[in-house]
Write the structure tokens for this entry.
Amino acid sequence: MNNTKEELGFEQKLEMLESLVIKMGEGGLNLESLLKEYELGVKLAQELKADLEKAQEKLLTLKGGVLKPMDTTDEV
């Protein structure tokens, strides 16, 4: 992959993490490969968490510092 993780969007990072989880769950990796994949997965998870925190901060700013739960009932 030519892109660095910094250039990847949230969805791309999430897809990479999901792919790693599947790959690790299938087995067949030697210990060294498994550890490398796990390390990459941890880094991706940390980046995804940071991305979500940034999005939440932006929402707080846009909503005047107060986030309210979404109304899940359908209005007709």
